Structure to design on (454 residues):
């Protein structure tokens, strides 16, 4: 069977931890979208591993697959694999032949276009994600399978590179270097292809995963980023260029929707909101320069909100894994979660980071929005309308800090009563049961209510 893990907010909900706690029963972990814009930290046998492409399960001896919906930077892939090997691990990573390749010119163009876009910039990770998906949709991309066939690779590069060079030089007025040099690109990427072939890493993803399922294996489909930065269902244009939502799990893995639908879809919820990037955020506390629209700094910001934001940011370690940028923080946004629960069809919830809010006298939640004078319970379809939404806050009594590891060992009823009231409000509003509650960053600090593989 499959279990699909989906971020229900803006990314960074703690998906890696959930993949981890349910991981023991899993044989194969497959990512279905995104690339090295996703950052996750895995702690294994006391050692910390920072990964952005290799699925975290690969550190724990599971087979990790990068599905056809992913965009793969081979340089990052092999760097991560080599680092894991140097540390004595032997990760088994497979890559879909249909996945698209991030080339150096994609990264260069990501940076150039972000600078040019000004107010419309999404605050991307500059990993070349958007430009690679653009080429995929424009039918001028290079796929992993092409790296294994030098003639095809050469033909693709000869067609596309002059266009990219002209775009950078003539439209954006930038100088270009070796990132746009056909011969150099051909040599480097042909070698990556050889390595992929020599190490037997490429697969026909859907066929491979289906055969594992038919053989009785448990497969986990691991989404990166989150629903509100999904290119279709998110806050366009401040989004990533793929589909982190559950529909992406079928398209991006090659498994049929009925296969994915017969399994479980677990929505990962952070108990408050965090955001790396630009665009509106109705429940935002304080703000972050360069990301919050019209941020006017300490002079204009509400001092209490700013202080609270700094507290939550520091307690929750809300700094980007990939970029180190401070994340914007806000109260939980229920209209965002109702939208996510519907778009993904969640069968269960994992709610993380309730320990981060411990110690606050009261905890607030954006229960609904007022949009142009009307109350609304879900997100409007345009980001401009979302920017006009004012959150109507509900207040919950806070809970104190306790020995969270002991709570995790004892189970759900050991969670402080006020925190349980908060959790049950979320579950009731989303009409979805709680499967797990994250009470700390460690592997042992999770209350497991339901194991989807049992
Ligand atoms: P891109 O995916 O690098 O193109 O960035 C597009 C938007 O998605 C930006 O606002 C990024 O900050 C955001 N984003 C991309 N990956 C992640 C992630 O893993 N966590 C949170 N935000 C992300």
């Amino acid at each position: 069977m499959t279990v699909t893990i989906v971020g229900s907010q803006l990314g960074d909900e703690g998906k890696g931890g959930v993949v981890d706690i349910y991981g023991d029963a899993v044989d194969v972990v497959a990512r279905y979208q995104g690339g090295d814009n996703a950052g996750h930290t895995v702690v294994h046998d006391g050692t910390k591993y920072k990964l952005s492409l290799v699925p975290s399960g690969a550190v724990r001896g599971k087979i990790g697959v990068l599905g056809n919906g992913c965009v793969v930077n081979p340089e990052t892939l092999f760097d991560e694999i080599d680092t894991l090997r140097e540390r004595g691990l032997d990760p088994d990573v497979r890559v879909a032949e249909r996945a698209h390749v991030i080339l150096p010119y994609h990264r260069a163009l990501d940076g150039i276009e972000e600078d040019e876009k000004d107010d419309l910039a999404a605050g991307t990770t500059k990993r070349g994600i958007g430009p690679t998906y653009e080429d995929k949709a424009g039918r001028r991309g290079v796929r992993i399978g092409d790296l294994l066939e030098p003639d095809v690779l050469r033909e693709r590069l000869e067609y596309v590179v002059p266009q990219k060079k002209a775009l950078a030089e003539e439209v954006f007025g930038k100088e270009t270097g070796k990132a746009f040099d056909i011969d150099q690109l051909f040599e480097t990427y042909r070698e990556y292809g050889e390595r992929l072939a020599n190490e037997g890493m490429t697969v026909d993803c859907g066929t491979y995963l289906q055969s594992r399922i038919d053989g009785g294996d448990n497969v986990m489909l691991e989404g990166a980023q989150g629903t509100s930065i999904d290119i279709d269902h998110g806050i366009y244009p401040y989004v990533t260029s793929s589909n982190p939502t559950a529909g992406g799990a079928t398209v991006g893995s090659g498994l049929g929707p009925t296969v994915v639908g017969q399994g479980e879809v677990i929505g990962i919820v952070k108990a408050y909101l965090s955001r790396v990037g630009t665009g509106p955020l109705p429940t935002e506390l304080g703000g972050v320069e360069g990301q919050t629209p019209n941020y006017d700094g300490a002079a204009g910001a509400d001092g209490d909100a700013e202080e609270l934001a700094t507290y939550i940011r520091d307690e929750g370690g809300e700094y980007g894994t990939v970029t180190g940028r401070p994340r914007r923080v806000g109260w939980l946004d229920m209209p965002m979660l109702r939208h996510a629960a519907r778009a993904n069809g969640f069968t269960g919830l994992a709610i993380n980071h309730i320990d981060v809010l411990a110690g606050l006298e009261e905890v607030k939640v954006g229960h609904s929005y007022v949009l142009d004078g009307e109350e609304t319970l879900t997100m409007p379809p345009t980001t401009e309308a979302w920017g006009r939404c004012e959150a109507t806050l509900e207040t919950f009594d806070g809970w104190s800090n306790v020995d969270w590891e002991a709570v995790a060992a004892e189970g759900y009823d050991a969670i402080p009563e006020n925190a349980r009231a908060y959790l049950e409000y979320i579950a009731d509003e989303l009409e979805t049961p709680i499967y797990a509650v994250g009470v700390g960053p460690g592997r042992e600090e999770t209350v497991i209510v339901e194991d989807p593989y049992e």
Observations:
- DSSP finds 16 helices and 21 strands in the chain.
- The longest strand covers residues 362-371.
